[in-house]
Design goal:
The structure is a homodimer of 308-residue chains. With 308 residues, chain A is α/β, with parallel strands linked by helices. In chain A, 34% of the residues lie in helices and 18% in strands. In chain A, helix 9 links the parallel strand 13 and strand 14. The two termini of chain A are 35 Å apart.
Chain lengths: 308, 308
Amino acid sequence: MEVHSSTAGAAAPPLSPGDFRELFDSVDAFLFDCDGVIWKGDKLIDGVSQTLDFLRSKGKKLVFVTNNSTKSRKEFAKKFGSLGISVSEDEIFSSSFAAAMYLKVNDFPLDKKVYVIGGEGIIDELQLAGYTGLGGPEDGKKTAEWKSNCLFEHDKSVGAVVVGLDPFINYYKLQYGTLCIRENPGCLFIATNQDAVGHMTDLQEWPGAGCMVAAICGSTQKEPIVVGKPSTFMMEFLLKKFQIDCPRMCMVGDRLDSDILFGQNAGCKTLLVLSGVTTLSALQDPANDIQPDYYTNKVSDFLDLLGA
Amino acid sequence: MEVHSSTAGAAAPPLSPGDFRELFDSVDAFLFDCDGVIWKGDKLIDGVSQTLDFLRSKGKKLVFVTNNSTKSRKEFAKKFGSLGISVSEDEIFSSSFAAAMYLKVNDFPLDKKVYVIGGEGIIDELQLAGYTGLGGPEDGKKTAEWKSNCLFEHDKSVGAVVVGLDPFINYYKLQYGTLCIRENPGCLFIATNQDAVGHMTDLQEWPGAGCMVAAICGSTQKEPIVVGKPSTFMMEFLLKKFQIDCPRMCMVGDRLDSDILFGQNAGCKTLLVLSGVTTLSALQDPANDIQPDYYTNKVSDFLDLLGA
């Protein structure tokens, strides 16, 4: 996929009514990031529900592409439902799903196991794909003690370690994952994503998967295979499902280094919303070299911009 | 300090009796790393005690330079004592001490606090230097929950975060340290060291401080100030204490990227021992570009080499 860099160098303009009309007419699908775009923690961002209804009423396909790996697609669909938004599993592409699909398309043997540093979402998606996940929430309360004459054992049949956001990270999991990667021949090191921080709650940001992934990079001195944004790995599945050309999609996200870069890497149009981690000053910082096609404050600006 | 690179490019030779006689006569002090050189976990490596006695009897100064920050110098002296070796606090230069000294020589204000991700050793050394350490073991059992309308509070008077090896690492500490570095203006990010793994127990290696430091790099997108090896920061204190020229010191360690590089950066002679994390094949791997002056199996080889 080509790298879309028409705006490289120039600062992105704010989305005007005219720009949005043009954008709206030129795309068939809107791809949305979730955290910081649709919701913050468990709170829906104002006006999102009406905006999504409006887009659907105009025949636009809606797709949700999230680096959040703590939930499976099924659990994400439930979360949407609990917030009053009807979204089907098929419309959701999460990095938990991407991790399972990476193993599948690379013919990862079914008799090998997968050690998970991360949430239930990864374990669930692995299981749906036919794989056995170890670790995850189950190892959240385990402890690792330094004792003489005592070996910390790990499963030699683990052939991949998947690392995602893990609020129950501990030394046990770090040692387990590190041993698998260092000692099991050919063991894969897969990162759901490398986001530094995220809006896990409405009021502030918290360390993201980039924190746990970096920890394992630090202990193993290895670099991971990244399956979430900005990697375009998920795009292949999305294209198969929706059969829309990338230039007729618009990626809407709050992060430059994952969402906007993902959109650009895939050749989509890109729109940054300022309702999440990126501030206007960060966008306009001369050190920032990732510029979306446009930016706006929040998703519900769409309604005002079209006079809907 | 000049970079000592006389052996760069050439593979290090094993230490012969002739080499060791020459080395022995040309140095006044032996600088030893501890983990993997003196002990593994709580087990003394065979013959270490007799070797240190012998070196002292021949008038050599012994200095212990360790990246292990879990203990203060006082606690390290106790550990030596419990293993039957008499070492004074003055002979120990630990990265916990280095972290406190870094703040001191940089006039870190006494009314600012220091948040610690790491062990009691860092807290103790900070206190000895007149500083108030927060976190450390005290935060080992704290949990951080994602709740709506709930702010994770942090102390705005924290002016430095010190990160070292922490077997009780958790999401609470990661969020606390991340918030201080991201939100407290001018907050320093100090790493005791960046060792990937270490022989925390006799039978195997475990994630080292490099794991926790990388996690904070991942969430803050900042690089730390490193005070332990291979940084030569500690060397200034060592020189003040012992008044021996660097070329008349020999650094003995088991790690290429911390011990040997530290010795070379400081202009010392260097000897790798294979009793810790580095294998002979790792030393001789063409991809390895750090070559000590010599290597040998273990410290007690000194006795055989001199026919003592």
